[in-house]
Write a structure and sequence with these properties.
It is a single chain. The chain has seven helices and no strands. The protein is mostly helical.
Length: about 120
């Protein structure tokens, strides 16, 4: 429904808000959204195809457990996954803390995408 409202508002006359967005940030938002779609699509294709190939064509110990474990992300709501990733990858989270401790880095010594 929200997408339909946005599409319908594009058909009418532009308001000052749309004009301001077009002049300032809308192109950046569209480019970022397209890059995000391409990146997520490529990552999903890579992970999905390799996981399907492993479970369908290869015999290895734990294959049945692995194939069932691949279903677990479907059972978790997206907001719980997002909250977990934010906690893990945030500046004070275990991933960045371990990187700073292992390499002696300080804030600003390394680039990490902003999680929040």
């Amino acid at each position: 429904m929200p997408v339909a409202v946005i599409a319908a508002s594009l058909l009418g006359p532009y308001s000052t808000a749309w004009t301001h967005l077009l002049d300032t940030v809308l192109l950046d938002y569209i480019v970022n959204s397209l890059l995000l779609m391409l990146g997520v699509g490529a990552g999903t294709l890579l992970l999905g195809a390799s996981s399907a190939w492993l479970t369908a064509l290869c015999e290895f110990p734990g294959r049945r457990v692995f194939s069932w474990a691949l279903l677990l992300p479907l059972a978790m709501p997206a907001y719980i996954i997002a909250y977990t990733y934010t906690g893990l990858l945030d500046f004070a989270g275990p991933v960045q803390s371990a990187l700073r401790e292992a390499f002696g880095w300080q804030y600003g010594d390394y680039w990490f995408p902003p999680i929040r």
